[in-house]
C-alpha cells in the first residue's frame, strides 16, 4: 500500500484552491478533489465579481477561479476533477474514495461549500447573473435606482431586502405566506422602511425577460389570481444547503447542516480534519472570506502535521 499523503482537500471553490496554494507552498503536495460538475465552485456560474480585492475593474467569476486553479497547480497541487463519494475520517490515516479509486492522507480539509436553494423555475439558471442573484452583498450595487424583488420570508431575506433598499429605487419582498418567519426585530425594521414593500401570499409563476430579468408573474396563493411585477433584479433568499452529507457521522454538524469548527481555528471535532468556507460559514458567505478561511485551514493543517512529526 502506498504511503498516506500529507493532505487531501475536498472542494474547489475559493476555499479549496486557496488551501491548495498555501499547502502546496508549504511543500505538502496537496491532492485536491474538484468535483465533476461544478469544479471551480459557485463563482463559475456568475459573471462579474466586483468585490474581490486586487481587481480594480472587477473580474469575471470563471476567470478568477481559473487563475486560482492555475496558481495552485503552479506550486505543485495535484488536481483531480472528480467527486468524492465516501470518506472515512475516524483513524489517524484518513480514507477518501471516488467512484473508481481510494486515497489516504494524514489530514483532510473539507471545502465543499454550500448550495443556494433555488426556486426551480425554468429561466432561473439562464438568467443567473443577468438579474437573478443569491447574494445582495455581491450584486446589490448593479441595481442602482432599479426595482428589485427579493423572495423569502426569513431573517436573511429581510436582511437582503433591507440592504438592497440602499441601491434600489423600490424593493419588493415576496413571501408565499401571510406571516413572515423572520424575527420580530427584523419584521419591524422591514415594515418601517419606506422603500420596502412586503407582498404577502404570492409565489412566482414565471420569470420574464430574454437576455436579462424584466419582471415576474406573481400568483396569489389564496385567490390564484396572477399579475405582472416589473423588476430588473430578482434576489432569491430561501436558504442554503451546506454540502455536508458526505461528512455526517464523521464530524460534528450543526442543526442547519454546517460543519462545526473550533473558532477561530478551522479544526473540526475530528483530529486531523479541518473545514472552511461556505461549508462552515452561515454568516458571511463571500469569496474573500472563503479564501481567507481556506488559507487558515492549510496553516492549521501544517501545524497539525508538525505535531505528528
Ligand atoms: P464553493 O465555491 O461552493 O465551492 C465548493 C466546490 O467544491 C463545489 O462547487 C464543487 O466543485 C466542490 N465539491 C463539492 N462537493 C464535492 C465532492 N463531493 N467531491 C469533490 N468536490 C466537491 N461572493 C463574493 O465575494 N462576490 C461575488 O460577487 C459573489 N457572487 C456570487 C454569485 C453567485 C451566482 C453565487 C452562487 C455566489 C456568489 N458569491 C460571491 C459567493 C461565493 O461564490 C461563495 O461565498 C464562495 O464561492 C464559497 O466558496 P467555497 O470554496 O467555500 O465553496
Structural write-up:
The chain has 309 residues and is α/β, with parallel strands linked by helices. The chain has helices spanning 14-25, 61-74, 136-139, 155-164, 184-192, 287-308; strands at 5-10, 31-33, 48-49, 59-60, 78-80, 86-88, 94-97, 102-110, 114-116, 132-133, 147-151, 170-174, 196-199, 202-208, 215-220, 226-229, 233-236, 240-242, 273-275. The strands form five sheets. Strands 1, 2, 5, 6, 7, 8 and 19 form a seven-stranded mixed beta sheet that branches. The chain has a five-stranded parallel beta sheet with strand order 10-17-11-12-13. The protein has a three-stranded antiparallel beta sheet with strand order 14-15-16, with no helix packed on it. Strand 14 and strand 15 form a beta hairpin. Helix 1 (14-25) packs parallel to helix 2 (61-74) and helix 4 (155-164) packs parallel to helix 5 (184-192). The longest helix is centred in the last third of the chain and has 22 residues, at 287-308. The two termini are 21 Å apart. The mean pLDDT is 95. The protein binds flavin-adenine dinucleotide. Flavin-adenine dinucleotide binds at residues 10-16, 33-35, 38-39, 41-43, 45-46, 49, 51, 83-84, 111-113, 116, 128-129, 134-135, 138, 243, 246, 277-279, 285-288, 290.
What is this structure's SSE topology?
Layout: E1 5-10, H1 14-25, E2 31-33, E3 48-49, E4 59-60, H2 61-74, E5 78-80, E6 86-88, E7 94-97, E8 102-110, E9 114-116, E10 132-133, H3 136-139, E11 147-151, H4 155-164, E12 170-174, H5 184-192, E13 196-199, E14 202-208, E15 215-220, E16 226-229, E17 233-236, E18 240-242, E19 273-275, H6 287-308
Parallel strand pairs: 1-2, 1-8, 2-5, 8-19, 10-17, 11-12, 11-17, 12-13
Antiparallel strand pairs: 3-4, 6-7, 7-8, 9-18, 14-15, 15-16
Helix pairs in contact: 1-2, 1-6, 4-5
The structure holds flavin-adenine dinucleotide.
